[in-house]
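Is this the right way to post structure tokens for a design question? Let me know if I should format differently. Anyway, here goes:
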């Protein structure tokens, strides 16, 4: 397996051939399914020449969108079925779904970078206890 690193720290597996096979659980309500498909269309229009989301056929490694009590995705390809968990009340917007999709392809939060302390100074006295 080819691996790559994000910010020189987190080893991740790439999605094969730059394609992310996906499926959507039947438990996901129709209105949320529509938003997911809209997010995927927007992604593919903007980034599809680099990383494209495609409907799953029989791939062993794929992303499965599910309804849950929170919003979550692992960072990078995890092998086998990888969940993107979406809460209908809090994550039923294109931006939130794109955020989780970015985690799935390997993006992490800026504040989690191992070199963040080179760029920011935390003023602990300003943090209420």
């Amino acid at each position: 397996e080819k691996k790559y690193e994000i910010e020189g720290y987190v080893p991740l597996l790439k999605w094969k051939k730059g394609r992310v096979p996906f499926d959507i659980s039947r438990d996901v309500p129709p209105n949320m399914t529509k938003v997911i498909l809209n997010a995927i269309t927007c992604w593919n229009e903007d980034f599809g020449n680099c990383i494209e989301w495609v409907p799953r056929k029989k791939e062993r490694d794929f992303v499965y969108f599910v309804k849950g009590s929170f919003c979550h995705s692992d960072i990078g390809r995890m092998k086998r079925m990888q969940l993107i968990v979406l809460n209908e009340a809090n994550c039923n917007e294109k931006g939130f779904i794109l955020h989780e999709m970015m985690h799935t392809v390997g993006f992490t939060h800026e504040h989690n970078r191992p070199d963040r302390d080179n760029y920011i100074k935390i003023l602990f006295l300003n943090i209420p206890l």
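Format looks fine. Someone answered above. Worth noting: The longest strand covers residues 19-24. The radius of gyration is 16 Å.
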